[in-house]
């Protein structure tokens, strides 16, 4: 049967090809055995899902396996945002969670994310252990009927919203946002975030208008529910139509956030992380370590130096960020994909809470999104980012790795190369403090070439050189 491997964030596969009910059940059995071996099984497990094709059925099948192993399951009664599922782990004092979602992947994929007792991503060593425990065939899988499991109190359905709402109220005062009179556009990307901003911010002067807020697993108007250009273009076209002050864009499982200004211009995810860092350090006056992947903005390093807080860089993925946040007691952690986690919350990306913090930044400063960017750049200088994703033939991966690994050009995009970092992929550091990163995606058969620089006119030249180094042009 199919060999199941965990990537940057769990196992993902094409529905009906490798992501089948039998392979899903095998994966669930491996996690059940992991919980038993780690002494976490008696605490139970939370299982949730997104709005993809048959996601609720995949979640039910997963619950049947866990229940058959004698592990109590709290099964969400409907599609639920990933951060809410993670918070439910803490609220229920469970041993972990399984989330049936492929996050931002194309419509034909589904996924299997696992979380630890803190609601965060399980570290790489734990993922390897889960992989090793996945049975080779269905003979090693325990299962029982879901109705029987519910009758035997092995599966309990629940609504995760109430506890999450209480948690949000502890982290941010929503009243000023409700009373601000903002006109907020929320692009739900046909995903789990639909309805959550109106629930949390309703009843005041602020108006929330949602688009793409129904279930549609084909994700119309976008190639995938990922909050980056061009997937955000259709949603952002509504900003001027309704006179919105800001746009908030959540991905398919609502653990990531994108941001658009009052003119309908996209604010890329590196700049959003810079704004969040500025918000906590300057506006809220908080202090504490910052955790970031190597693929996100150097503006955080500059903010860290300006405010006297340490900045820790990790490999790409919350399987690295979450453990590091726990280790250093981080104030904030995040990555290039638009996922950000916060202190006193679960060490998990939360696109809903991040959106609330961005709205509060507008309230506290009285500035529009475009003006906030100007303020950030006054502090750290303007930074420019872009990336190219390319599919590749798996047979060529070793040759690409060898070519890029040996590369050490003197210049990239006309800028001197001063260092090379190989924490995750190959990152070339340039004289302006900017960087070019070439690495393989951990969730899809894609090679990514991305860069950040202080020279707007050099972005495309840097990317073009990156494509040449990778042998893709």
Mean pLDDT over all positions: 96
Number of domains: 3
Q: Which word captures the global form?
A: globular
- CATH architectural name of the largest domain: 3-Layer(aba) Sandwich
Poorly predicted ranges (pLDDT <50, ≥5 residues)? none
CATH homologous superfamily caption of the largest domain: Alpha-D-Glucose-1,6-Bisphosphate, subunit A, domain 3
CATH topology of the largest domain: Alpha-D-Glucose-1,6-Bisphosphate, Chain A, domain 3
3D architecture notes:
The protein has 17 helices and 21 strands. The two termini are 36 Å apart. The chain is of the alpha/beta class. Helix 1 crosses helix 2, helix 1 crosses helix 4 and helix 11 runs parallel beside helix 12. It has 3 domains: 153 residues, 3-Layer(aba) Sandwich (Alpha-D-Glucose-1,6-Bisphosphate, Chain A, domain 3), CATH 3.40.120; 201 residues, 3-Layer(aba) Sandwich (Alpha-D-Glucose-1,6-Bisphosphate, Chain A, domain 3), CATH 3.40.120; 86 residues, 2-Layer Sandwich (TATA-Binding Protein). The strands form 4 sheets. It has a 6-stranded mixed β-sheet, with helices on both faces. The protein has a 6-stranded antiparallel β-sheet with strand order 16-21-20-19-18-17.
């Amino acid at each position: 049967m199919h060999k199941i491997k965990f990537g940057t964030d769990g196992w993902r596969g094409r529905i009906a090809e490798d992501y089948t009910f039998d392979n899903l059940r095998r994966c669930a059995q491996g996690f059940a055995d992991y919980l038993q071996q780690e002494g976490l099984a008696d605490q139970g497990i939370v299982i949730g899902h997104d709005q993809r094709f048959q996601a609720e059925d995949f979640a039910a099948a997963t619950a049947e396996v866990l229940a058959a192993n004698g592990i109590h399951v709290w099964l969400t009664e409907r599609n639920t945002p990933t951060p809410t599922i993670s918070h439910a782990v803490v609220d229920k004092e469970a041993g972990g969670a399984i989330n049936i979602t492929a996050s931002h992947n194309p419509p034909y994929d589904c996924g299997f994310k696992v979380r630890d007792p803190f609601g965060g991503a399980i570290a790489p060593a734990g993922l390897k252990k889960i992989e090793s425990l996945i049975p080779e065939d269905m003979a090693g899988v325990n299962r029982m009927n879901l109705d029987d499991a519910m009758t035997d109190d092995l599966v309990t359905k629940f609504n995760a919203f109430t506890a999450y709402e209480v948690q949000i109220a502890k982290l941010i005062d929503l009243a000023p946002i409700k009373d601000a009179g903002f006109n907020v556009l929320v692009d739900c990307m046909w995903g789990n975030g639909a309805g959550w901003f109106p629930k949390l911010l309703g009843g005041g002067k602020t108006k929330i208008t949602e688009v793409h807020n129904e279930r549609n697993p084909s994700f119309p108007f976008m190639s995938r529910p990922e909050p980056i250009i061009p997937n955000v273009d259709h949603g952002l076209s509504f900003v001027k139509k309704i006179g919105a002050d800001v746009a908030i864009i959540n991905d398919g499982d609502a653990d990531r956030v994108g941001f658009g200004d009052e003119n309908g211009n996209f604010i890329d995810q590196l700049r959003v992380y810079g704004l969040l860092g500025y918000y906590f350090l300057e506006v809220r006056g908080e202090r504490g370590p910052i955790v970031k992947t190597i693929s996100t903005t150097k503006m955080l390093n500059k903010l860290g130096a300006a405010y006297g807080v340490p900045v820790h860089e990790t490999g790409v993925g919350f399987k690295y960020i979450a453990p590091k946040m726990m280790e250093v007691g981080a104030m904030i952690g995040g990555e290039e994909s638009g996922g950000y986690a916060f202190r006193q919350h679960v060490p998990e990306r939360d696109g809903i809470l991040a959106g609330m913090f961005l709205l509060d930044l507008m309230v506290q400063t009285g500035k529009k999104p475009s003006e906030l960017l100007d303020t950030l750049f006054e502090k750290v200088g303007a930074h420019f980012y872009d990336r190219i994703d390319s599919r590749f033939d798996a047979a060529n991966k070793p040759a690409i790795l060898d070519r890029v690994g040996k590369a050490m050009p003197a210049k990239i995009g006309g800028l001197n190369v001063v260092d090379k970092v190989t924490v995750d992929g190959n990152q070339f550091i340039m004289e302006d403090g900017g960087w070019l990163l070439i690495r393989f995606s951990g969730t899809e058969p894609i090679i990514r070439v991305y860069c950040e620089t202080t020279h707007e006119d050099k972005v495309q030249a840097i990317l073009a050189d990156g494509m040449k180094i990778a042998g893709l042009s």
